[in-house]
Amino acid sequence: MKKILFFAFFLANVAVCMGQINMVDSTVQVIGFWDRNEKQSYTVSHEEYKVSKGDTTSRVLYTYDVDITIIDSTAKSYTIQWDYSNFNVVSELAFMKKLLEATKLNRAIIKTNEMGVFEELVNWKDVRTETMRLFKVLQKEFKEIPNFDSLLKQQMALFQSKASIEAALIEEIQQFYTFHGGSYKYGVDIESTMQMANKYGGKPFDAEVVIWVDTLNVTDSYSTICMTNTVDSVQLWNAAYEYVTKMASTLDIKLPKKEDFPSFKNTTYTTAQIHNWGWIIFSIVTKEVEADNMLKVEEQTIELK
Questions:
Q1: Cβ atoms of 127 and 169 closer than 8 Å
Q2: Quick check: 31 and 187 in contact, CB under 8 A?
Q3: pLDDT, tens only, 260-270
Q4: Average pLDDT of 125-130?
């Protein structure tokens, strides 16, 4: 009888611990359990707009598809290929439409560790070459716009190093692997400080981060994990002012005084529904930047087809 009870208890534990969710202690560990040549397809959408005095302006929307394929798997790492297609931009500004098209990748090859934690963009030099080629096309197309050439050259300077390309051109990839490699417990918030990419090309920003588990679903084999992070406002202000200083010099316009330059608050909200095998089912990131009674919102979703 004792052997039967022990066997039943063992089976019960196997049932609740299978995959990455452990209902015994209400935890989930996000790990990539991927096989070579395994492939999943996603739709990505990105929307940007500004809200000032209740009015919404400067709306930009673009969407695209991406096929994610595991092209190599070892005991220590995964090599993963992202192939992009069907890129579509909705914007009132022709320049913005062309700029977004110029900075969207055709293919990215990345490497993660054995847990699925993003490590590097392997083909960053190819990405840089293609991006520079497209920027030169823009130079010719919009050469009649005053100071456009100088402005574009300044933008091109942001995409020269591996670190800057990883910070600015693969946000959807960084978003996809946000929670991989971590272990999270339902009902227990994780609070810490972490480094966030700096799109202005300088040192990474410090950010206050809170992570928590919203859902553990054993029946459908997924968990939902959420995170908020708030960038250090002083570091953000300094980087923004330095960038504006360069812009003013490039465009030969008057630089605002430091005392007139607005303060910023940058908060990002991330929610991801993740299958036990480490594939994202749905992920959404909302970035809110507040300055001078104006709110700029960027929202990006990744959804399994």
A1: yes
A2: no
A3: 788 888 999 99
A4: 92
